[in-house]
Every structure is written in C-alpha cells, then in structure tokens.
Amino acid sequence: MGLQLRAGLGLEPWSVLNQGISRHTGLSIGTVTIVSGVLILLLWIPLRQRPGLGTVSNVVILGLVMDATLTLVPEITTLAVRIPLLAFAILLNGMATGLYISARFGPGPRDGLMTGLHRRTGRPLRLVRTCIEVAVLTVGFVLGGSVGVGTVLYALAIGPLAQFSLRFFTIGGQSGRVVASSEPAPASAPAPLS
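RE: above sequence
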C-alpha cells in the first residue's frame, strides 16, 4: 500500500479513504489504517464474526509497515519509475493477500466485514465486495484521497492476483477447501503411523 502511494498514480479504495481521513486529521496514513481497522472490527460484532491472530496482526502490521515504507521510500517524480512501482505494488498486494489468507489465522478486518455481510445478507460475495469498495472509494475521494489509473488497475487486478496466490500458497494440498471463512476450519484427519 505504501509503494502504491509512492507511485502517485492512484490508491486502492481503502487507502483512498485512509489518506482522505489522514489529510483531515493530521494523523499518519498508517495510524489511520490501524484505527480504521479497529473501528471495522466493531462492525463485526453484529455480524458475529470471530477475529483470529491474523485479524489482529492485520490491524497492527498494515499501518506500521505502511508508515515504515513511506519513511524509507522517497517520493518519486519520474513516471518511468512510478509505473513499474505501481505494477509491483499491486502484484505484491495480491501475493500478500494469498499468503495471509492461506495461513488460516483469520481474515483481516476488511475481508471479515465482506464475508460477514455476505453471510448475514445472503447477497453474492462479489456484490457485497463491490458495494463496500465503491462506498469506501466514494467517501475517500470526497475527503481528498488519491484516485487515478492505479485505482482502476488495482480494482481489475486484485481479484485474479489474489485467486492465483491463494492457489499457489495454500499449504498441504488444501486447494479444494475454503481458505477464508468466518467459521472455524474443520479438523484434519490424523496422519497415518508409519
């Protein structure tokens, strides 16, 4: 997320919102990311979502890493560097999504909100995700968050990248099993003794 911000060609929807809030509060975008993650977790209560270690880690680590990235990576003005940086940032985000979800330690706040609303409303997952993303993007844009070609590229690429990385990073041949759910994973059969 920090690299996509440094590319300066448009952010993914949640970062558009966080950047807009950051501009109005004076807090760093990483701090806003952490606070918004905590607030989103409050929305899990009526949805009866259960947080896991991955959920809590996601709340804290995303914001800290984003602020660290913005500290370490200088602002870039050359378009010939910004375009590949944007592509790399989107690819990295897609791979990271597959890595953290396939670990099965609980979805992040935003993904859990999506799965919880899907479960409670019965609406298709893609519709729930799209509505959330459009709402977040709209509010972020109104607050002054960066929207651009990177926002569109992210929206088009993140689904296929996440799907690929989920298949690639799933451990132990669990490819046919759900890797992100608000329900606990079923217990695996014990390994045969040799």
